[in-house]
Amino acid sequence: MERKRSSSMTRQSSKRFYRSDSQGDLAKFWDHGEHFAMQNRWVFECAWEVANKVGGIYTVIRSKTGVSVNELGDQYVLLGPYFEFKAKQEVEEEDFPYHHPLGQAVERARQKGYRIHCGRWLVEGNPQIILFDVGSAGAKMNEFKHELYEKAGIGIPHEDVEANDVCIFGLMVAEFLGDFRFLAENYSDSPPRIVGHFHEWMAGVGLIMSRIWKIDIATVFTTHATLLGRFLCAGALDFYNKLDQFNCDEEAGKRGFYHRYCIERAAAHLCHCFTTVSDITGKEAEHLIKRKPDMITPNGLNVQRDLHEFQNLHAESKEKINQFVRGHFYGHFDFDLDKTLYFFIAGRYEFGNKGADIFIESLARLNHLLKEAKSDKTVVAFLIFPTKTNSFNVESLRGHAVTKGLKDTIDEIQKVVGNRLYETCLRGMVPDGNDLLSKNDIVKLKRCIFAQAHTNLPPITTHNIVDDAMDPVMNAFRRCQLFNNRTDRVKVVFHPEFLTSTNPLFNLDYQEFVRGCHMGVFPSYYEPWGYTPAECTIMGIPSITTNLSGFGCFMQEQIVDPQSYGIYIVDRMHIGVEESVSQLAKCMMDFVGLNRRQRIIMRNRTERLSDMLDWKSLGIYYRRARMRALQNVFPDVSENEEAPRLPSRLNYPRPISEPPSLAPSRANSPNSSAPGSDSEASHDSEEEEAELQTALSQLQAS
């Protein structure tokens, strides 16, 4: 009877398992552009952040280049503005052959007086890149702006320098695409089929003018975050519940960026295929830009998986964080590091949008819950937001100096004691403990121990912040009375600059820091996608996100029970702030309640989701967006025609064990899993799975 029940449970659970090759995989189209070249097809991807690191779009495009080149080869070209300092570090300049339409189009632009830099971007895939020096066309700025106003009705104020540059860049790109389209006509027997993919409003002018000039290309426009959305959320409005109530023209006008809003809205309406990075941004665009996206193009990452090493990397990086904690909390270091968990939040310093407000409030409640439960565990919460500082906090530096002095003294005494022990044993004598440490050694140790005596509380920040009294994080700490008292089970550290390997306090970069933490907490109110929780996932670090972030929505759709995979999703859409804070505090308390073994199993499960976030899987959405645009302009293009005959499909390593309760892929995703299609059993032991599942059930029940 027991065997039958076990067999039945195995069959039921196997229906919920997923396999990585059930997802859409771009690899089957990888021929490095051979098929595209034969068909005279081209893809130009245009963004202000091509070889120009400003924000998240740079990460999107840079991380995607590898799979784009594998699919499209040299039929794929990136277009961006030229910034000398950045370009010299990232671009290897080389001219295209003159007999090639790219070389001819570049030469035509140079004959107009434009400075054009072309070559290869030094990133994965080494894609072709063309950068336009906006300053070289500065003399035509008024002419360009006049044409944009006459043809599109969009006027750009003279004092908006950035918008002026965007206008010049857009006209230069549109002229280049027009020249290339004409020159490509004679390059092959097949008529050219060109897709121009434009990202955000800063590339929007190029799309607008391409359509106005009736250049025979298909266009895709992707918005990663709407202009109005970011500003309205920062204004502490009940944004998502009032989406349909905003007067968009009035709101943009009041905030002084109506012309930018017009560029964004015009590009979205003129493109042949409009996409956003998430469903939540799609809903936002539908109300603020007045066009529903044709499809969603989620953001991915380059995933380099090592199925065992990530646990070892976690332990190594955690030890470096341990070293920081020993120094920062010197004189008050009375908690057990083996029973200490590290939580963190990081990103742009948008206090409300990034959810730092409810994170700090929930930390205060977590502190109360742990005290009430008489827990022996400690949580150290790091907040990493760059802001203006004067210098490092002297107390923090002193603590690290004191602990380093103690470590050096002990290492010196340890060496001397080792020699004494060796000499005593050589003489055939059993060493006496009293003889190993000399009086001088004891004096040295006492001096180091007394130097640790510290009456002040450990600092809550590692730097001296400019205008400390007005800083929102510092004020929230004061309001919630998070001062790192001895009795506090939650300690806080505000680090107001991004982490680098040269940081004298941490001595590790951001990626190492993330690996060393136990959980990332990102309770954002406005987060069109959310690269920080995605990065945690591929490193096997559980995270907390919200149903107002693109990443959170994506995971909710893909996974039946995200929490069992270490993806905790807080509701910030359907409940009030008070309930959201309580829910966040409970999520953290539930995680603290897991023992070390259960956390290891959780990290294994989290890391298995990496395949879902790999560009090899998510890049297929970009391909479909391009196909949709092409078919809108060129009805003769068919997707079947574009599928080349390839060698056998590449097989990527499967997860160590099959995770439970993964939902079939979203409706419009490629090759969704068929229910019950897997018959393989889990590689995790039944005891491990049962142990974690029981713990989660108990925590949820409580």
From TrEMBL:
Pfam families assigned to the protein according to its UniProt record, in alphabetical order: Glycogen_syn (PF05693)
Phylogenetic lineage: Eukaryota, Metazoa, Ecdysozoa, Arthropoda, Crustacea
Keywords (A to Z) from UniProt: Glycogen biosynthesis, Glycosyltransferase, Phosphoprotein, Transferase
Pathway: Glycan biosynthesis; glycogen biosynthesis
EC top class, as a word: transferase
Coiled-coil regions listed: none
Similarity comment: Belongs to the glycosyltransferase 3 family.
Gene Ontology molecular function: alpha-1,4-glucan glucosyltransferase (UDP-glucose donor) activity
Summary of the function given for this chain in its UniProt record: Transfers the glycosyl residue from UDP-Glc to the non-reducing end of alpha-1,4-glucan.
Residue ranges, compositional bias (Low complexity): 663-679
An annotated GO cellular component: cytoplasm
Enzyme Commission number(s): 2.4.1.11
Matches recorded under InterPro entries: Glycogen_synth
Organism: Tigriopus californicus
SUPFAM superfamilies the record matches: UDP-Glycosyltransferase/glycogen phosphorylase
Protein name: Glycogen [starch] synthase
Catalytic activity: [(1->4)-alpha-D-glucosyl](n) + UDP-alpha-D-glucose = [(1->4)-alpha-D-glucosyl](n+1) + UDP + H(+)
GO process terms (BP): glycogen biosynthetic process
Annotated stretches, region: Disordered: 638-702
